[in-house]
Amino acid sequence: MITVIVIFVLLRIAFVAGLWKIFEKAGIAGWKSLVPFYAEYILIVQVVGRQWWWLLYLFVPVVGVFAFFVLIFDLLRCIGKTTVADQALAVFTGLIYLPVVAFRPETTYKGKLSELPVQPKSLFTEWVDAIAFAVIAATLIRWLIMEAYTIPTPSMENSLLVGDFLFVSKFHYGTRTPKTPLQVPLTHQKIWFTEIPSYVEWIQLPQYRLPGFSSVKREDVVVFNVPRIEENNFMNPNRASWTDYPLDLKTNYIKRCVGIPGDRLEIVDRQVIVNGTPLKNPPLMEWSYLVTSKDEINERNLAKLGLDPEDYSLISRPEQNKVVYQMHLTQAMLEEVKKLPYVIQVENDYRMHDGPDYRIWPSSEYSRWNADNYGPVVIPKKGMNISINDSTLAFYGLAIEKYESNKNVTIKDGTLTIDGKTVTEYTFKQDYFFMMGDNRHNSHDSRYWGFVPEDHIVGKGFFIWLSIDKFGTLLDKIRWNRFFKPIE
């Protein structure tokens, strides 16, 4: 936090210094740049020649951010910096570019916007400037305010459906400062429609979180960078070719937060229990069932039940006139399936419920945990102190080694060594969270790969703006009832 304050103060000093010099060149006393609000808004509006009512834009949420940068761009034009490159440098250097150009002897005040000569531009130049400005604006929105996200898997059904397009709020929890600045704008890991990396790691900056409106709460739907390298290369079986992405470019997952820092979490017979209290289950939760029918079930009959091809699979034919399906069903769907005349038997999927599951985290030959019976486990909290032994290292060793910014970590035979020194106690440096999908038997979540560090949190699911059913027919391809639906 101290580092964040120091950086903010330094940026503020640089910005005020730039204003001081520009005001002097415009015939205004430089010391007036020291007056908060008056300098940043009223005097800048006067220097660039905007109307007084322009100030009102600065008080409108979201709009105010862009109105402020428009004033900065206007200020640059008034001192002769008119290119999109100048605008981009002002934005992406945190306004440090302002004093850099202001203190140059050749930089002069050219006059208000209405007094500046109109420079004719070719059609090509106008298009280039418009596209560049759009990219800058979109980058700002994506970083500071909101980012678009698409649901790729059914792990959150029926709260979120495959094909939902949603906006993720960055301002709820506070946006993170960029860690990997050298990347193609509006990309994530790769350049669109290619396998070419969209970034280079020549520069890695320390990462901080700007102030937000709230913290992550239980039951929030959260987008985050999945921590482990395994999940970041989930579809690649060749481990030798795996990519270890920078923190801010790790693969995005969306799940529901079921445990916050310091919580004691366990799952007993499918029910999540936090600090001894059962957690409220999301409506329309799905569970896995083994459904035995007399023969293969027609796809149209399955569709009538509300099942698409991602909700079921044929897993075996144990004998003649018996076909076993795995189906992910809500309680209402389950009752409907039981009534079907060709269904012989419906039972809980014992593979999720009985005996140990080797995929469950943390992996141990002594553990009998599975998807339905898990824990208890205490979620790490910043400042929480633990003794180091075999048991605690099984739960917390991964976080200590990979996510706590420790150097030269070695874990062997129940001993933790950090930077050559044996550690018998450890105090966590950040908060962690436990995430689970609402489709509990069809979700790859914290039960399988562990805690989510606070610095991996991207934002809060906000609302759905479009929903497309890839299995729908032409007339019902778009799920109109999901338009602008808030995420709960």
Question: What can you see in these coordinates?
Answer:
- Among the domains are: 2-119, no CATH class; 266-364, Alpha-Beta Plaits (2-Layer Sandwich), CATH 3.30.70.
- It has 13 helices and 21 strands.
- It has helices at 2-25, 38-48, 54-57, 63-78, 84-92, 97-102, 123-145, 229-232, 299-304, 331-339, 350-353, 390-402, 446-449; strands at 146-150, 164-169, 221-225, 252-259, 264-268, 271-274, 277-278, 287-293, 312-319, 322-329, 343-348, 374-378, 385-387, 409-412, 415-418, 421-423, 425-427, 432-436, 452-453, 457-467, 485-486.
- Strands 1, 2, 3, 4, 18, 19, 20 and 21 form an eight-stranded antiparallel sheet that branches. A four-stranded antiparallel sheet has the order 7-6-5-12, with no helix packed on it. A four-stranded antiparallel sheet has the order 9-10-8-11.
- It is globular.
- It has 488 residues and is of the alpha+beta class.
